[in-house]
Amino acid sequence: MSDLAIVDTKPLPPQRWGLLPTRQFWARAWLTPIALVYWLGYIGFFSLAESLQSNWWQTALGVCIFHALWGGLVERLYRRRLARRAANLLEATAPAPAFPMTGLPSRRDAPEFSVDDWEAFVARIFGRGADAVQTLAAVGLCLLFFYPGWPGKLVAVAAMLASTWIARTCLRRWRREALHGPRPAIDPPRVECRARH
């Protein structure tokens, strides 16, 4: 039995309106052949943007819209294909014999920070407005990245790194407090000043 069959994952949320992409799906699909199909679509998009001689901000907004349409379409098609494949595998497999499971992934093997953690962080900070905040942040970072010149790209990358670091730090603290309770306040050391005679 492989380690992948043992790992418990949450089901993916449904696509909005049956077409828009979900962050959870693409976070898991970036390192699979599904991403190749996704990126092949961008060759056509950038060829079209170059032939239309669009401005930087038009290209940036076009990337956001293209991701929503093309990413959602690719996700929809692959979700159907993966569901069909899983159903076929369930029909073809016989019940496994009962034996103790070995090779369980250890805590060290589990990723320290995943898309589910990011979703939990944004939901806890922004509540019901989490989706709107994430969409605005993605559009803002896309505009920054496509702004002409290197400073915009550096600021976009620095903003992504900083937001990841802040989310990881907050989630570690929240998990630690949930497991062990809040840390006790540390009293500052008392400094006694004595006059020398």
UniProtKB/TrEMBL annotation:
Give me the segments passing through the membrane.
Answer: 25-49, 55-74
Keyword line: Membrane, Transmembrane, Transmembrane helix
Keyword Membrane found: yes
Q: What is this protein called?
A: Glycosyl-4,4'-diaponeurosporenoate acyltransferase
Please give the organism: Nannocystis bainbridge
